[in-house]
Amino acid sequence: MKQELVQIHSFECLTAEILELTFISEYLSTHAQPGQFVNIRVDNNFPLLRRPFSIFNIDENKVSIVFNVIGTGTKVLARKRKGDTIDVVGPCGNDFLSLADDSFDTAVFVGGGIGIAPFPFLTKRYPAGKEIITYVGGRQKELIVEKGLKNAKIATDDGSMGFHGTVLELIKNDFSTNAPKNPRFFLCGPNRMMKVVAEFAKEIGATCYASLECDMACGIGLCQGCNIEMVTGDKKYRLVCKEGTIFETQSVKFS
Amino acid sequence: MKQELVQIHSFECLTAEILELTFISEYLSTHAQPGQFVNIRVDNNFPLLRRPFSIFNIDENKVSIVFNVIGTGTKVLARKRKGDTIDVVGPCGNDFLSLADDSFDTAVFVGGGIGIAPFPFLTKRYPAGKEIITYVGGRQKELIVEKGLKNAKIATDDGSMGFHGTVLELIKNDFSTNAPKNPRFFLCGPNRMMKVVAEFAKEIGATCYASLECDMACGIGLCQGCNIEMVTGDKKYRLVCKEGTIFETQSVKFS
Amino acid sequence: MIESFKLRNVEFNNRILVASGTFGYGDEVPDLVDISQLGGIMTKSLSMKPRDGNPNPRITETASGMLNSIGLANIGVHKFISDKLPTLKKHDTKVIANIAASSVEEYCSVLELLDAQEGVHGFEINVSCPNVKEGGLSFGTDVTLVTRITKELRQRTNKPLIIKLTPNVTHISEFARACEAEGADAVSVINTVIGMAVNIHKRTPKIATTTGGLSGPAVKPIALAKVYETVNAVKIPVIGIGGIVTWEDAVEFFIVGASMVQIGTANFINPSTGITIAHGVKEFCEKNGMDNVGSLVKTLQTNRTISIVDSWL
Amino acid sequence: MIESFKLRNVEFNNRILVASGTFGYGDEVPDLVDISQLGGIMTKSLSMKPRDGNPNPRITETASGMLNSIGLANIGVHKFISDKLPTLKKHDTKVIANIAASSVEEYCSVLELLDAQEGVHGFEINVSCPNVKEGGLSFGTDVTLVTRITKELRQRTNKPLIIKLTPNVTHISEFARACEAEGADAVSVINTVIGMAVNIHKRTPKIATTTGGLSGPAVKPIALAKVYETVNAVKIPVIGIGGIVTWEDAVEFFIVGASMVQIGTANFINPSTGITIAHGVKEFCEKNGMDNVGSLVKTLQTNRTISIVDSWL
Ligand SMILES: Cc1cc2nc3c(=O)[nH]c(=O)nc-3n(C[C@H](O)[C@H](O)[C@H](O)COP(=O)(O)OP(=O)(O)OC[C@H]3O[C@@H](n4cnc5c(N)ncnc54)[C@H](O)[C@@H]3O)c2cc1C
Ligand SMILES: Cc1cc2nc3c(=O)[nH]c(=O)nc-3n(C[C@H](O)[C@H](O)[C@H](O)COP(=O)(O)OP(=O)(O)OC[C@H]3O[C@@H](n4cnc5c(N)ncnc54)[C@H](O)[C@@H]3O)c2cc1C
Ligand SMILES: Cc1cc2nc3c(=O)[nH]c(=O)nc-3n(C[C@H](O)[C@H](O)[C@H](O)COP(=O)(O)O)c2cc1C
Ligand SMILES: Cc1cc2nc3c(=O)[nH]c(=O)nc-3n(C[C@H](O)[C@H](O)[C@H](O)COP(=O)(O)O)c2cc1C
Ligand code: FES
Ligand code: FES
To answer: Alpha-carbon distance B117 to B21, whole Å?
Structure first.
């Protein structure tokens, strides 16, 4: 893990609401694994704390993240330009690949809105010989990113793109007609979405991993602010930033 | 006085360190007088308070200020671009023209560094029939602005431009060889500079006005934070933002 | 949609007030602000005699806040009555006279003078003043003195009597209870927090009096906690103050339990903040199906049985 | 150029420490920070038994600050000694064990266990803990209890004993005087300020425990004022904490009178803040012709005869 001042290489609008920000980092591009995140100081004074962002893609020495403008931090980030520098700590957290053993055939990625963020990089690095299906859910089409995803199936709450309904409904439909062989689930997105998809995975007996999100002060295990309650194991809480962000869904209590 | 969201029309580098920022305001361009200032919210969250800037020039519907990057506020301001909007309150404070009666022949403007700010606009609006001489002092040439000034005479502490020495020394030199007829002084700049020039004006029996600077929370008379101690009159203190910024120098106590 | 709020015998148009010392005597900003859209104006603290206030520098900016030590510069109660009140009366808003004093007797005399004035609708008592008789210790940090001030003033007015509490005490709830017991109609929470800043090059304090009062967004979390402690201690209305800039900030105070709120430092940035907030709060209520801003008040859902002290943080 | 500072029998390499609860047990950040460049590490507060801490959410950002209610989650003193101390010992820095407890007896027992450990160079006592016997009121707001804790602990150790004071009291100087009288070697000023934030959509507190501790730049002015009050009340060294992010911030504390400083929240943003500050302070001293950082301490020029209470702000 390193703290670096990196230069912004480009901005790209992936949808009307979602931006991809690409910056240059030799170090991160060689050290980061899919599912890890970077912790960005968007500006010198305000907001005070860093903002965590999943690594969306790595291409040679270029690393990218995706975001939509929600509040203070993302507003400042969206105003940066090519050539500006930003202060990045990373790679943080655990990663998908080193967690999952090999005993499955189909990787089912499920992303809610901006929660697709880790999947393009994961898709790229996925071991050969595994099937990949990607489910993407969102409120409306402006929040749906397809870039870098494989076999993407889309559900929107308002029906403006793909299936009209929740991503869980779409998954259930698909699985009832044409269940993938020996699936394993990888989730990222709003807790509510991950909770119900994790329940479905449990019902069909599939292992399920989720990358959890929660407010973080440090992102590196110093503040103890990012605890998640466990239902298995000896510890009542674990730290999302360090012992996660990825957990086996049956081990944690979704809030 | 109004509060407006105005659009930035352009940036110009006047020296290696000093920027001119021009914005569009119908209202200010028709209502502001030389010596008045505008109070700018440079950003939504940080810094908290507005920053006051003298009106440097008005050209049709375009109003400009000049500044150098000193701290938080000016750093943010310098990062703005053409087309961005800024939140401006103004015009604030009293003005040079309505204060000064007509009983003099030569207007002597003395600006220290960025303190020349009000003089180009004042020069432009000055009643015909008066001579104008402008003295500009600064640490080095990067802090000397000549744009819009009339008969500008320059002094730098390091001798990198014009006279090598303080602006007071230059004035004294000039006055000893070729004293202007019946002068009146108008000062703007660091307190230390204004204090000594005001003393010289007093010595030679000339009336002297100074535009004072001090930290302001509101700029419009609400906070009572900008008091200056008086040596004449019935009030111990007056408010720089509202009862000034321009005072007859013998009436105030320079700190 | 009911926005108004009644305190004792006075009905405020809405629950948004401007805080003492941050809006002058209401006559500084006529161009920029339509004062009638405010629930009320708390005047700059008034003392018996005019006060020059403290030397310069009186203010300095801090991270998301500011320090001030104006020294309660004011024109004195007589001049307020003769010069300011006539103008203030013309606006359709409530005028609450904020009183500062250096003795219990002075509080009483200033209040009596103002109580006789028709255009003065109520009183807010600034107890964050040095008690000259007791060597300059603040009235506001001594519960016996706050009790006495409240008792004496209550006997002298039938208009709303609001005591403005200082946050610089261990248990603000003790003070609020004392005010309630002596018949105060409400308490205002909070005045500024003691703070300081240093010019490292000159090695001098950044404000002339060394320490000053901290205000602005930086203190909002502190103010909310003090309001929370207070609303859980008394039944009289609590007026929330501290760091309110947006309508969302105001809603936080209402949810915690403030019946009204005051806008202070934010007026320096946007003098019309109070009006913007009044509209924002109203809209928020309407969107959420409330027909009364009061429906927001004290609706915080928390399952903590609280004693407001440092717990296991 | 002397940067070091001696407290009782321990010489710290420099005057910059990292604050309890903001640097784990010193083993979280080896890649990013060369710990040996720090004067010392205050450990996360240690209690006798391990503590899970509070439920989520434990933190939330505020304007130029943050609220936390970690609940003193820690691995317990035994595990600290067996698992963390051996690694910590390897660094050329001083390890100050911060102790939290829910009874005077627990403070004593934890200290005794740690006092026997060679790698523990001193103690910082977190008195901002609920006193279980007294219904959860904080030890730190009761001067009798702080006196008793200091007295008991002083009898049990010859290593530096530092009491970490809470700012949430009317007169922090009373507490500092009590600590001095009972033989404490220093006081740390300040712990977090009680604060609160509300999610207006859910109408719930933003942290699970309703109120939490405010830290970061927002509290710097408060911390400086508390340090100022304290240094004017006692002769023992005062360790300044609160909102320090830059070396300029640290210099402000030194000028006011802090002998050492601690970096807290800033570590979350830049874990190497302490090191950057150590360099910055050193450079500033050199540029200003000082051969000792100590030449900065308590050099504030002020002509105010002060009683630190609300004065005429
Ligand atoms: C491990 C991790 C990875 C993340 N990866 C990404 C990513 O790849 N792309 C991305 O855009 N964001 C990501 N986030 C969230 C991101 O860090 C920011 O919280 C988010 O972008 C909003 O920041 P802000 O400063 O703009 O909003 P703030 O000003 O902090 O918040 C504004 C408001 O939005 C709410 N809010 C904050 N975050 C969220 C959220 N995520 N969803 C809904 N409401 C929210 C807040 O409660 C607040 O009310 C990630 C978070 C974590 C913990
Ligand atoms: C009536 C009035 C008119 C003004 N007109 C202009 C103008 O035309 N152009 C212009 O550039 N500025 C002008 N100023 C000053 C301006 O308002 C800002 O204070 C200044 O630009 C620095 O702001 P900042 O936020 O960048 O620095 P801050 O972050 O506020 O300050 C950074 C550091 O610089 C110091 N500092 C602040 N202001 C000054 C200063 N003026 N001189 C020296 N040190 C300072 C501070 O004490 C602090 O230590 C005027 C001020 C007043 C009161
Ligand atoms: C410049 C200034 C002057 C103030 N003067 C007074 C005053 O005269 N009387 C008073 O009771 N409070 C005074 N206050 C305190 C405010 O009324 C308010 O309680 C405090 O600033 C917190 O609110 P805020 O964070 O919204 O500013 C003053 C505050 C400021 C910033
Ligand atoms: C997340 C967090 C955890 C903390 N944990 C402790 C602790 O365990 N013991 C303690 O004495 N202080 C603790 N503190 C208080 C800090 O040590 C420090 O006193 C306070 O944060 C003020 O300094 P700062 O503004 O630099 O953060 C904690 C602070 C934070 C922000
Ligand atoms: S965010 Fe600080 S420990 Fe996880
Ligand atoms: S700056 Fe507020 S009164 Fe002058």
So the answer is: 12
Q: pLDDT, tens digit, for every residue of A86-95? A: 999 999 999 9
Residues in chain A: 255
CA distance C233 to chain D (A): 16
CA of B100 to the centre of ligand 2 (A): 26
pLDDT in tens, D164-175: 999 999 999 999
Place of tokens 């009339």: B150
pLDDT at C287 over 90: yes
B229: which DSSP letter?
A: E
Residues of C with CB below 8 A from D72's CB? 312-313
- Best residue in A43, A69, A81 to probe B by mutation, most B CBs within 10 Å? A43
Q: Atom 7 of ligand 2 has which residue's CA nearest to it?
A: B53
Q: How confident is the model at residue C308 (pLDDT cuts 50, 70, 90)?
A: very low
What is the C-alpha to C-alpha distance for residues B240 and B247, in angstroms, rounded to an integer?
9
pLDDT one-digit tens code per residue, C272-282: 999 999 999 99
Distance separating alpha carbons of residues D103 and B205, to the nearest angstrom: 77
Count B/C contacts: CB-CB distance under 8 Å.
Answer: 94
| Alpha-carbon span D130 to C57, nearest angstrom | 41
* B110, B212, B227, B228, C212 from B255: Cα distances, Å: 19, 11, 11, 9, 20
Q: How confident is the model at residue D307 (pLDDT cuts 50, 70, 90)?
A: very low
Asked if the Cβ–Cβ distance from A224 to D23 is below 8 Å, we say no
Cα(A215)–Cα(A39) distance, rounded to whole angstroms? 12
Work out the average pLDDT over A116-135.
91
Per-domain boundaries in chain C: 5-312
Contacts of D230 in chain C (CB under 8 A): none
User: Residue D27: which pLDDT band, with cuts at 50, 70 and 90?
Assistant: confident
> Which of B33, B50, B51 should be mutated for ligand 2, with most atoms under 8 A from CB?
B51
Q: Which tokens belong to D223?
A: 């911390």
Q: Residues of C at the B interface (Cβ-Cβ below 8 Å)?
A: 21-24, 28-29, 31-32, 44, 52-53, 55-61, 64-66, 68, 70, 73, 216-217, 265, 267-272
Condensed to tens digits (0 to 9), the pLDDT of residues A177-199 reads: 988 989 999 999 999 999 999 99
CB contact under 8 A, D198 and C301: no
- Cβ atoms of residues D275 and D37 within 8 Å: yes
Q: Tell me, what's the ipTM?
A: 0.96
Ligand 2 touching residue B42 (CB < 6 A): no
Kindly list the structural domains of chain B, giving each domain's residue range(s) and its CATH number in brackets, ordered by start.
Answer: 2-92 (2.40.30.10), 96-251 (3.40.50.80)
Is D285 an annotated catalytic residue?
Answer: no
Nearest CA in chain C to D312: C71
Q: Is the pLDDT of residue B78 over 90?
A: yes
Instruction: For domain D5-312, give the fold.
Output: TIM Barrel (3.20.20)
Q: State pLDDT tens for residues D107-118.
A: 999 999 999 999
Write the DSSP string, B136-172: EEESSGGG---TT-SSEEEEETTSSSSEES-HHHHHH
SS3 assignment for B36-84: CEEEEECCCCCCCCCEEEECCEEECCEEEEEEECCCHHHHHHHCCCCCC
Q: How many Å lie between the centroid of ligand 4 and the Cα of residue D22?
A: 6
Q: How far is the CA of C68 from the centre of ligand 3 (A)?
A: 8
Contacts of C299 (CB under 8 A, 6+ apart): C255, D203
Beta strands at A163-164 and A2-13: parallel, antiparallel or unpaired: unpaired
Using the Cβ of B100 and the Cβ atoms of chain C, whether some distance falls under 8 Å is answered with no
Ligand 1 in reach of A17 Cβ (< 6 A): no
Which residue is it, tokens 């008034």?
Answer: C46
pLDDT band at C307 (very low <50, low <70, confident <90, very high): very low
